[in-house]
Design brief:
This protein is of the alpha/beta class. Helices cover 39% and strands 14% of the residues. The protein is built from twelve helices and 15 strands. The strands form three sheets. The protein has an eight-stranded mixed beta sheet with strand order 3-2-1-4-5-6-7-8, with helices on both faces. A five-stranded parallel beta sheet has the order 10-9-13-14-15, with helices on one face. A two-stranded antiparallel sheet has the order 11-12. Strand 1, helix 1 (10-19) and strand 2 (24-28) form a beta-alpha-beta unit. The longest helix is centred in the middle third of the chain and has 32 residues, at 195-226. The chain is globular. The N and C termini lie far apart (53 Å). 44% of the residues are buried. The protein binds nicotinamide-adenine-dinucleotide.
């Protein structure tokens, strides 16, 4: 069996590494520098060890390519490309369309096409299938299925094997073959009645997080106004053994999923005349957190940040990974700079970002902690400036939410 995985990022490389234990995998990515990097046995993703990749390459189980004709003869094609927002913050399916073009033009015998990219209900049926068919030179009856990815990069307790996986095919045969494929490396497969249910469930999972994070971010502002510790109040609520799930406040939400997926759901809702006011409001609250934090920092520092050297600690969107997509640190830095602060940042996990480099953890007037990697020394943070504002709740002794 030849499995081609289109997109070798967080999702695609992770699935390639697991599938490579059982199948021959072609990792297709249009970034040729990344392809060369992968073929030299180097992983760029937390959770996929370079040694795993080297072993697969040595055994002839994995090869990366950016040549679309290499997709020919695939038995299964897994699509794992970005589904971001466009510059009007609307769903952008252009990467998905490009992936469909490659499949349509080069996969010339019937294959099972599985989409793992996150998108709104109806994407498999009304976008991917017609798009692939429109790019095919002849009429080929591919099978189509969806299995939305749930990987949480950097997480060690849940992985491809022990995270239950949703799936649904457009036909019973597609469902059966999808189950056969994933059951080689995933212990629990949950079939749902249609691709649309799987697509909707995936969006709702991340919308649930977005909304609850917004709620706790609003709660942090309320408790501060009331002179109560948000962390103590949350810990107290968390002693209830049922009906409560603890979320932590912070500088906002980041990554490719939580700020983006709810907008896919809201857009689909609005297109069908259903309100998505709650989802839209949650997004606004989270986006406004950066401004709120900078206001708090300014208020504690005589109301002015003009000319102050401010060090932002942690620009990745979450601890222990280098992913900076949609990171809340960007908004925090923008707001600090708009107040005249001279901003640098410390994040040795990220290293270089937007043409700037991580600076040492020292010598600032003000330090604002946005993300705390495990490798960053707590005492080092406290010693880096006379005033430290922590948005993570992890730096004991600092000011905070
Ligand atoms: N990162 C996550 O934690 C996560 C979790 C669940 C679901 N998802 C979803 O999975 C999908 C992929 O996300 P990701 O985080 O892996 O993205 P990513 O940016 O890490 O990787 C995507 C890869 O696809 C490649 N690519 C783009 N267009 C291509 C094309 N036409 N042909 C070949 N390669 C192409 C890019 O070069 C990149 O290497 C998205 O829909 C995302 O929402 C992501």
């Amino acid at each position: 069996m030849k499995i081609s995985v289109i997109g070798q990022g967080y999702v695609g490389l992770t699935i390639s590494a697991f599938a490579g234990k059982h199948f021959n995998v072609l990792g297709f990515d249009n970034n040729s520098a990344l392809v060369a990097h992968l073929n030299s046995g180097k992983s760029h993703i937390e959770g996929v060890e370079s040694s795993t990749l080297q072993e697969l390459i040595k055994n002839g189980r994995y090869r990366a390519s950016s040549i679309p004709s290499d997709l020919a003869d695939s038995n299964i094609v897994v699509i794992a490309v970005p589904t971001p927002l466009d510059n009007q913050r609307k769903p952008d399916l252009s990467y998905l369309d490009a992936a469909c073009k490659a499949v349509g033009e080069y996969v010339e015998s019937p294959a099972l096409v599985i989409n793992e990219s996150t998108s709104f209900p109806g994407t498999l049926r009304n976008f991917i299938k017609p798009s692939i068919e429109s790019y095919s030179k002849s009429q080929i009856n591919h099978l189509y299925a969806i299995s939305p990815e749930r990987v949480d990069p950097g997480r060690r307790d849940f992985n491809q094997e022990n995270t239950p996986r949703l799936f649904a095919g457009l036909t019973p045969e597609a469902s059966r073959k999808t189950k056969e494929f994933y059951s080689k490396f995933c212990h629990e497969l949950v079939e749902v009645s249609s691709p649309e249910v799987a697509e909707a469930a995936k969006l709702f999972e991340n919308t649930f997080r977005q909304v609850n994070i917004a709620l706790v971010n609003e709660f942090a502002q309320i408790t501060n106004a009331l002179g109560i510790s948000v962390y103590e109040a949350l810990d107290a609520a968390d002693t209830k053994p049922y009906g409560f799930m603890k979320f932590n406040p912070g500088a906002g939400v980041g990554g490719h999923c939580i700020p983006v997926d709810p907008i896919y759901l809201a857009s689909a809702a609005e297109e069908h005349g259903a309100p998505a006011t709650f989802i839209r409001r949650a997004n606004e609250v989270n986006l406004k957190m950066a401004e709120y934090i900078v206001r708090r920092v300014a208020a504690d520092n005589g109301g002015k940040l003009d000319g102050k050297n401010v060090l932002v600690v942690g620009v990745a969107y979450k601890p222990n990974i280098a992913d900076v997509r949609e990171t809340a640190a960007e908004l925090v830095i923008d707001h600090l700079r708009s107040q005249g602060a001279v901003v640098s940042w410390h994040d040795d996990v990220v290293g270089i970002w937007k043409g700037e480099s991580s600076v040492p953890l020292q010598g600032a007037d003000i330090t604002v902690v946005v993300t705390k990697h495990d490798s960053v020394d707590m005492n080092g943070i406290l010693a880096s400036a006379p005033y430290v504002f922590d948005t993570t709740g992890k730096v004991k002794g600092a000011k905070g939410l």
